[in-house]
């Protein structure tokens, strides 16, 4: 299917997939932060702040410098490794 896509369509699909992965990771961090806040309020606040940053990145993936998206995706990879989540590319 991706063979029939124009470069612009492929870039758009790539950006949407990245945005989705980053947003899902933000939700995971938010859930963990909520649990952490019961035992360590500062750790909970840190997790909520990290989730907020990732949410902002996920909403602007297409317009951010590539370096920012790359670093956000490194967080996605780290959280996926920690949780045992395996992402598929959908192809």
UniProtKB/TrEMBL annotation:
It comes from the Bacteria. This is Uncharacterized protein. It comes from Pseudonocardia petroleophila.
